[in-house]
C-alpha cells in the first residue's frame, strides 16, 4: 500500500502540466515585465557570497507619495514554485502581483530562480545534474538579500512578510520559524507542509528529478536525516507558535476558482494549467494543511487564518486570488 501511494503521489507531482509549480521547461517569456507599463519594477542583480553567483531579484518600491519622508519600508517577499525559471518570477509572469502591491506602502521582492530548491540551504551541489554551486537560499533570503536591500533600497531587514506557493509554501513557514524577527508574517498557498512524511519525502525526491534533475540527497540528505524534519512545518509548529508569527494558510480540495483571476498582460498562453492535474495536486496538499492546522491549534496557536474554500485548485488563478485576499492582513501586520 505504501509503495502504491508513493507511486501515485510521485506521478501526480511530475505531470508535464505542472506549470503551477513554477513554469514549463523551455518556455521563456519575452516581455520585460508582465504587469502594466509604468510600474517601477526594477531588475536587481544581487551577489550571493554563499552561492558564489549573482541572483536576479525583481523589486518594486513601496510607492510612497512624493515628498514623504524616506524611512526603511517593510516588504513582502514572494517565493516561486518547483519549476522556478531563471529569468522572471512566476508571480510576475502569471499574476499582476506588482499591480496589486503598487502604492501599498510596502516594497515587493521577488527572488528569481531556485528551481527545486525549497528555498533552503543544501548540503552540497546536486550531483545528478552537475550543478556547479550549492544552493544556499535560506542564507541568501535571510542575510545577503536583506543586507543589500537595506543598504540600497531602504527596505527594513526586520518586520516583513513572506508568501510562498506549492513548493515554497512550506518554505515561507520555515523561514518565519527560524528568522522570526525578519518575517513577522508568513503565508502558505497550497503548500506541502509535511515533507518529512515517508511517502511525501519519496514523492518530492521523484519530483525534483523531474524538475531539473536535482538530487534530494544533496539537499537534506537521506529521508532519515534530521534536515527533513528541520524543514517540515508540521514538525516545527511549536516554534512557529512560540514566535507569535501571523499566518495565512490556504488550500482547497480542487475545482475552479469562484472568481478566476485573469492572466497578467503578456503572460504566455502556454502557462495554462490543466484543471484535472491541478485539482489532483491540491487534493494532495490539503491533507498536510489540515494536519498543520490540527497541530497548530494543539500547540496553542491563535494567530493564524486558515482558509479551505470549496473551490480553488493548484493554479496561479487560485494563488492570485488568495494573495489579494491576504494582502490587507499582511500590510496591517507588517505596519504595526
Automatic annotation (TrEMBL):
Keyword Signal in annotation: yes
Organism: Mycolicibacterium komossense
Subcellular location: Secreted
Top-rank taxon, per record: Bacteria
Signal sequence extent: 1-22
InterPro entries given in the database record: AB_hydrolase_fold, Esterase-like, Mycobacterial_A85_antigen
Main location: secreted
UniProt keyword annotations, A-Z: Secreted, Signal
Protein name: Esterase family protein
